[in-house]
Amino acid sequence: MDIKTMISYCLSKKGAIEEYPFGEDVLVIKIASKMFALISKRNNQPNISLKCDPFIAESLRQQYSSITPGYHLNKSHWNTIILDGSVSEPELCKMIDHSYELVFKGLKRLEKDAILQQ
Questions:
Q1: pTM passes above 0.90
Q2: What span, in angstroms and rounded, lies between the C-alpha atoms of 86 and 81?
Q3: What is the pLDDT of residues 18-45, one digit of tens each?
Q4: Which domain CATH number covers 83?
Q5: What pLDDT sits at residue 71?
Q6: What is the dihedral of CA 106, 112, 116, 118, to 10 degrees?
Q7: Is residue 58 part of a domain?
Q8: 72's torsion region: left (phi>0), alpha (psi -120 to 50) or beta?
């Protein structure tokens, strides 16, 4: 999946917005005020950091060498995926969906209702 397609997929999620709170090098995609994806380049390699259930996160890290604990994030709840083609597009979409769902679940009821009414 190329980076533009991945960004479009993230932004297609209900209520998703893009911001650059850490500078122009890191695209942060949020729902309400909570991040669910961070997209950047490190060592000239594009990557995406996604929230993940800790048990699933560890399993994915064992399965793929391109998935590491979240870069500058909570290591048990975030994974950073290097976009080198080793993770298939459907699997990456599944990870984005999972991150979105985890963050959505943690929102306040009013925030959820506002997003669902969009």
A1: yes
A2: 10
A3: 999 999 999 999 999 999 999 999 888 9
A4: 3.90.1150.30
A5: 83
A6: -120
A7: yes
A8: left
